[in-house]
């Protein structure tokens, strides 16, 4: 890059804060994602058959771990030193900025992977597709779509020279013309990116908005399904067994909505930055700085929140099965049952079992108590879907 004078839009202390704050969420995200990877790989060794949910979590966590590691290594220093007014401690080159841009784009790839996780929950719970059908017909696309999103746009950014320093989100490189806004200012000539950067940026941003759209639709479908399930249980189910079913169904629905909720908490800030775009000038830093700070603090945090949800489910399942095992088996047999059921528990199965047995038309019997006793027979816990139970 040629040496060029760029007007700063942040104070020195603000640039320093934006450069350093990202190390906190990326470190926590790397730890959380690594713990999920270790747990899932360990569970693969303990059982002969893995679940689609586990494989999606493995792919999502691997992408988050790679992204977090890349952002830790290629921090604010990777910004070319010619653009030192745009980032604190900038001493990199065009090449380091391009590599940093790839890792920044992987961060947006994790958003699409989270959308695929939400879609999986919808397919299992709302549309009641079997585990085998999803695994053989749909799952490959759930992995392929986010990976291709990262690969395609990374190649475009590298080949076209579109990964350049961001002015508003200081310390990051992504799709941006250089010098900033040279395509809109006739007095400034573009050194890198030129007009095609805007097209690539719109396409990449469109993929991010698509992820949000998928997740919003899935969240609405899950909420409606849970509400319908509650109404069905109140109408047809009676007794302690139905209460147990509803509690377990609530847990599964809550888990899916937790993933979605934390996604919005982390991913909304880049979207806000795309919508609220004040002039990139120092006098507007009271608007630009809070958005940039929250973007760098919250967006990489998804791996940590996913780990919290993931391990909370594991611990809850272990606690429930341990508690039930105390009244059902001896001490030696209880340990075996707990380990097996925690490893093989499908997070969508409890909700599907309730859907399958909550309606007399689906069970073929009019006795609510007999339906629930049969649905929660431990022998049926390993069923892949309610279709198989029928």
Automatic annotation (TrEMBL):
Region feature Disordered, mapped onto this chain: 332-390
Cellular localisation: Membrane
Transmembrane recorded as keyword: yes
Record has Transmembrane as a keyword: yes
Record-annotated membrane-spanning stretches: 20-44, 56-79, 99-123, 144-163, 202-224, 256-277, 289-311
Keywords assigned by UniProt, alphabetized: Membrane, Transmembrane, Transmembrane helix
Basic and acidic residues bias (residue ranges): 359-390
MF annotations from Gene Ontology: G protein-coupled receptor activity
Membrane disposition: Multi-pass membrane protein
Biological process (GO), any one: adenylate cyclase-activating G protein-coupled receptor signaling pathway
Main location: membrane
GO cellular component: plasma membrane
Name of this protein: G-protein coupled receptors family 2 profile 2 domain-containing protein
């Amino acid at each position: 890059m040629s040496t060029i004078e760029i007007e700063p839009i942040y104070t020195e202390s603000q640039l320093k804060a934006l450069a350093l704050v990202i190390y906190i969420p990326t470190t926590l995200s790397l730890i959380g994602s690594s713990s999920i990877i270790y747990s899932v790989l360990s569970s693969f060794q303990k059982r002969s058959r893995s679940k689609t949910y586990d494989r999606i979590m493995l792919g999502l966590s691997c992408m988050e771990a790679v992204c977090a590691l890349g952002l830790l290594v290629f921090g604010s220093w990777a910004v070319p030193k010619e653009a030192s007014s745009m980032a604190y401690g900038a001493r990199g080159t065009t090449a380091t900025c391009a590599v940093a841009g790839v890792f920044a784009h992987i961060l947006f790839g994790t958003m699409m992977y989270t959308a695929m996780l939400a879609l999986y929950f919808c397919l299992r719970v709302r549309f009641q597709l079997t585990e085998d059908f999803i695994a053989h017909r749909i799952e490959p696309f759930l992995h392929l779509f986010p990976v291709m999103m990262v690969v395609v746009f990374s190649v475009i950014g590298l080949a076209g020279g579109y990964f350049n320093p961001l002015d508003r989100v200081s310390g990051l490189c992504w799709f941006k013309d250089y010098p900033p806004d040279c395509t809109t200012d006739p007095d400034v000539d573009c050194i890198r990116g030129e007009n095609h950067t805007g097209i690539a940026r719109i396409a990449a941003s469109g993929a991010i908005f698509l992820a949000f759209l998928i997740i919003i639709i899935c969240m609405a479908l899950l909420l409606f399904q849970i509400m319908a399930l509650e109404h069905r249980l109140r109408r047809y189910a009676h007794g302690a067994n139905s209460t147990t079913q509803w509690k377990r169904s609530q847990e599964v629905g809550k888990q899916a909505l937790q993933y979605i909720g934390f996604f919005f908490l982390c991913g909304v800030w880049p979207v806000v930055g795309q919508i609220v775009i004040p002039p990139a000038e120092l006098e507007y830093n009271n608007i630009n700085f809070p958005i940039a700070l929250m973007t760098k603090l919250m967006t990489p945090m998804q791996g940590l929140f996913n780990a919290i949800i993931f391990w909370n489910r594991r611990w809850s399942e272990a606690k429930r099965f341990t508690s039930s095992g105390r009244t059902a088996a001896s001490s030696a047999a209880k340990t075996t049952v707990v380990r097996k059921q925690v490893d093989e528990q499908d997070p969508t199965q409890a909700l599907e079992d309730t859907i399958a047995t909550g309606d007399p038309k689906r069970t073929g019997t009019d006795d609510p108590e007999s339906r629930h006793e049969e649905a929660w027979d431990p022998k049926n816990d390993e069923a892949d879907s309610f279709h198989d139970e029928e």
